[in-house]
Amino acid sequence: MQLGIFDPIFGRLSLDAMLEQIGQYREITAIELGTGGYPGSDHVAVDALLASKDKVREFCTRFEDAGLTISALSCHANPLHPHEKVAHDADTVFRKTVRLAERLDVATVVTLSGCPGGAPGDMTPNWITTPWPPDYVSALNWQWEERLIPYWREAAQFAAHAGVRIAIEARPGFCVYNTSTLQRLRHATSKTIGMNLDPSHLWWQGMDVPAVIGALGEAIHHVHAKDLSLSPRKIAKDGLLDNRGYDELGQRPWMYRAVGWGHTEFEWRAVLSALRLAGYDGALSIEHEDALIAPDEGLASAVQFLSRILLQEKPVEAWWSKT
């Protein structure tokens, strides 16, 4: 596995300044680049790169010279949004990203499954999490059969034709948010679709991350390294579902943290070991969304924490293989 970084942490820096900053961390050898949608595209001029093979060669050379491989292109958005323009813009970004990944010889595009309204004419995305009252079952069936599966069946074909895998980040608020919903979409569409495994979104929902990894296996196409802290006292009072804003962190039952600030080294070792057992050999892409730690401090902490585990977890030839 490679230690990587997701570039929004350097959103205020130019491409050159970002590469100089990353160069301070010899352990980082991969980078995930945002191309639009929620992460933005601070370091990737998508249209210019699609229009010029010379610019593509120059772009790739800059990362090669910095000792970095591009692990994935990322375009988190909602292509199933009930507002036609929002959905169209998200779909356009996705398709441009797939085409650019093909140009750059990048195997994986990270995105979200999307979330439509609950019925024709509904103008607000509707994330359904309960089968009762019965109205929700009808709405959920409509979302999957009429919107989600048809869209991703065609989108997967588009990506497969370009030689690109789709890594859907399973996240609450969207139709694919856990193991079973990812598997359902994958089985209904194509193995081109897999998961961008972000442990923070799984711990948030009370999942055992190594168990998720064991269930998904080869369906894990990319991994984010992001942590989450839980407040047992607040969970005891209100549970894990919470719609208070991120400006009310002191009142929330959970919050995003830098790697190692939410779960122990033992727990992260279990995650990395499960990934090895599942055959994952891609990047651990550090994502910083910790409101309590400055980005440079969070990055340095995460690099030190993960590189130590990766070094100690490095596979060696077993003694029995020599007999």
- Quantity of strands, as a count: 10
CATH-defined fold name: TIM Barrel
How many domain modules? 1
The second-level CATH architecture is Alpha-Beta Barrel
Q: Give the mean pLDDT.
A: 95
Global Rg? 20 Å
Question: In one word, what is the shape?
Answer: globular
Q: Name the helix and strand elements from N-terminus to C-terminus, one letter apiece.
A: EHEHHEHEHEHEHHEEHEHEH
Helix content: 40-55%
Ranges with pLDDT <50 over ≥5 residues?
none
Please give the order of strands in the largest beta sheet: 1-2-3-4-5-6-7-10
What does this protein look like?
By secondary structure, this protein is α/β, with parallel strands linked by helices. It has one domain: Alpha-Beta Barrel (TIM Barrel), CATH 3.20.20.150. Helices cover 42% and strands 15% of the residues. The strands form 2 sheets. The protein has an 8-stranded parallel barrel, surrounded by 4 helices. A two-stranded antiparallel sheet has the order 8-9. Helix 8 runs parallel beside helix 10 and helix 10 crosses helix 11. The protein starts with a strand and ends in an 11-residue tail after the last helix. The mean pLDDT is 95. GO terms for molecular function: isomerase activity. It comes from Granulicella pectinivorans. Keywords: Isomerase. Pfam families: AP_endonuc_2. This is Sugar phosphate isomerase/epimerase.
Summarize the topology.
Layout: E1 2-6, H1 15-22, E2 28-34, H2 46-51, H3 53-65, E3 69-74, H4 84-104, E4 108-111, H5 135-161, E5 165-169, H6 179-188, E6 193-197, H7 199-204, H8 209-216, E7 220-225, E8 227-230, H9 232-238, E9 254-257, H10 265-277, E10 283-286, H11 295-312
Parallel strand pairs: 1-2, 1-10, 2-3, 3-4, 4-5, 5-6, 6-7, 7-10
Antiparallel strand pairs: 8-9
